[in-house]
Amino acid sequence: MTMQWSEIVAKGMKLKIPTATTRRDEKSTAVATTIYELEELKSLMRVHRAETMLEMSLHQNCVLFEFPTMEFVPKTDAYVELKKQIGRLVGGRIITAPPHKANGKFMVEAKFATEDHTEAAISHGITMGDAQYRAIYTGTSRDELPKMIRVHLTGIPYEEEDVLVAKLKESLKHYGKVCQLQMFRQSDVFEGKVSALLDTQDDAMASYEPLQRMLYVSAWETFVPASYKGAPPVCYHCHQSGHVKLDCPILQAVKCFRCKGTGHIARYCTNSDADFDTPQKRTDQE
């Protein structure tokens, strides 16, 4: 019988998350191999970085360039070169990362006066020395910012690469648009570890389920441990997600034999007024 998604979520929340074990006697040499990637991923990531820096969406019907910082000093010289090599600009803005995230590059969002100039920016771009810089379209069908999340999964069943890609895409489509898949090999052997880059932003075309620490992979009809930025905490006592050891409901139910309270044991009781007779150690003479 097929489970409802609410039942899947409830079951996943109750599962214990395996404690990760690391090799202490050898250095990890796992190698990541990209086994699937959207053709437009590089463009999506450039737009994603630009919108993250701006904290707002880019304009429609514009193009986006990315240049090395040292290519234009000051950066506004990029406008001069764009007008010189392509054509008149209707408008534009320079997009830079904050100082603590600077990567030696900056972006320029630009709108040209004609469609021909826009096409030229996409197909030919501009040339500076031996380098050629082409633009990409900023157009998107939605107003919300993309939410790119890298999800790491362990315990994936062993499959041939093409089968693995198909089953992962089928399983992860419930949680977001699958933009990239990577598998990790140790000494060229797949150990069941993969990572997926997901765009989890809901839009008019799709609505996605929230991620969990025990993620249901429908192609195998099982749950596997998942880790990702912003994931809920894992309790070190009961190994379930959603709370820490201090708030563990199992520990909260423990009864203290000294003060008769709950949430702790007599050894850690702080109630000095409670009567408690310390058990005497028995000896062989008794």
TrEMBL record:
Record flagged with keyword Oxidoreductase: no
One Pfam family this sequence matches: zf-CCHC
PROSITE patterns for the chain: ZF_CCHC
Chain ranges of the CCHC-type domain: 235-249, 255-271
UniProt entry keywords in alphabetical sequence: Metal-binding, Zinc, Zinc-finger
Protein name: CCHC-type domain-containing protein
Alphabetized SMART domains for the sequence: ZnF_C2HC (SM00343)
Species annotation: Absidia glauca
Molecular functions (GO terms): nucleic acid binding; zinc ion binding
Domain of life: Eukaryota
Record keyword Nucleotidyltransferase present: no
